[in-house]
Design goal:
Elements: E1 4-15, E2 20-31, E3 35-39, H1 46-54, E4 61-66, E5 69-70, H2 76-80, E6 83-86, H3 98-103, H4 115-125, H5 141-155, E7 163-167, H6 175-192, E8 195-199, H7 203-209, E9 212-217, E10 220-226, H8 232-239, E11 243-247, E12 253-257
Parallel strand pairs: 3-8, 3-9, 6-7, 7-8
Antiparallel strand pairs: 1-2, 1-4, 4-5, 9-10, 11-12
C-alpha cells in the first residue's frame, strides 16, 4: 500500500508584502518512492515551490506535512536525517578538497565509521571519482554539480523512506553525464525507497526517468498526473509552443519543441 510522505493543504506564498502571489496549491499528496518531475516555464514558481517543501521558505498560508508532521515543527537536525536538497547553485568558494565537501553530507549521521568509503562510493555514483583530491574552488560548474550530487547521496546513504529535492540538477552537464547521473539517481532512490522531486527544464528527461508530472504555471498547479498519461497538448499549453512527438520502437516517447 502506498504511504504518503508529503501532504500539502491550502499552500500559498506571497512576495512583496502579499502583493504578488508566487505559489498557490490547494492540495497535493506525494507517496513514498515516487519520482516526480516539476515542470513549467521560467518564472512560474517551480523553485519557490521546491523551497517551500525543503523548509527553506515558510508559507504565507497553509501547511505542509512531512511524514505526518507539520514541516514547520521539524528541527533542522531531524529534517537532515530524512530530507536532502540540491539547490540550483551552491555558493561555496572555500579552498576545500572535494572529498571533504562530499563528506559534509555525513555530518549529522550517527555512524561515522564508514565515512571515507561512503564518500568514495558517492563520488563514483556521481561520475566524479577523479575529482576526489581537487580543490572545490577551481572546479567548473558541471564538476561542482556532480560533487554536490555526491554530497546529497552521502547524506541519504543509509536512510530509507527519505525525500530528495533537486532544482535543475543537470543543467550544467553534457548530455552523456546527464543520462548517466539520472540512471544512477534512479538506482540509488529505488534501493532506498527515496522519493525524488526534481525541477526540470528538459521535458524528455522527465518522460524517460520520472513517473509523475506536476505542471506549474504562475504559481498554480495545472496538471498532476502520470507522465505517460499527459498529452502533447498539455505540454504545449504549459510552455506556449508547439511540440513534435515521437515514439521509438521500444515505446520511449520524446517531445521536440518547434
Amino acid at each position: 500500500m502506498d504511504k504518503t510522505i508529503l501532504s500539502i493543504e491550502n499552500l500559498k506564498k506571497f512576495w512583496c508584502s502579499e502583493s504578488k502571489l508566487a505559489v498557490d496549491i490547494s492540495q497535493l499528496n506525494i507517496n513514498l518512492g515516487e519520482r516526480i518531475a516539476i515542470l513549467g516555464p521560467s518564472g512560474s514558481g517551480k523553485s519557490s515551490f521546491l523551497k517551500l517543501i525543503a523548509n527553506d521558505l515558510r508559507p504565507s498560508q497553509g501547511v505542509i506535512f512531512f511524514h505526518g508532521k507539520n514541516l514547520a515543527q521539524w528541527t533542522a537536525r531531524d529534517l537532515s536525517h530524512h530530507r536532502a536538497v540540491l539547490p540550483q547553485s551552491a555558493a561555496m568558494n572555500l579552498e576545500l578538497p572535494v572529498s571533504l565537501i562530499v563528506s559534509l553530507g555525513r555530518v549529522s549521521s550517527i555512524d561515522q565509521t564508514q565515512k571515507n568509503s561512503i564518500t568514495q562510493e558517492c563520488l563514483r555514483l556521481s561520475n566524479a571519482s577523479h575529482l576526489t583530491n581537487a580543490s572545490y574552488q577551481i572546479l567548473s560548474g558541471g564538476e561542482r554539480a556532480r560533487v554536490q550530487m555526491a554530497r546529497v547521496f552521502a547524506q541519504l546513504w543509509d536512510v530509507k523512506d527519505a525525500l530528495l529535492l533537486l532544482d535543475e540538477p543537470f543543467a550544467a552537464l553534457d548530455p552523456y553525464l546527464q543520462i548517466a547521473l539520472l540512471k544512477n539517481l534512479n538506482q540509488f532512490a529505488t534501493e532506498r525507497r527515496i522519493t525524488v522531486m526534481a525541477v526540470l527544464h528538459d521535458v524528455n528527461q522527465a518522460l524517460q526517468f520520472f513517473d509523475r508530472g506536476l505542471f506549474i504555471k504562475s504559481g498554480q498547479l495545472l496538471v498532476d498526473a502520470s507522465l505517460d498519461d499527459i498529452s502533447k497538448h498539455a505540454f504545449e499549453e504549459l510552455y506556449g509552443n508547439q511540440f513534435l512527438e515521437f515514439i521509438t520502437d521500444n515505446k520511449h516517447r520524446f517531445l521536440i519543441a518547434q
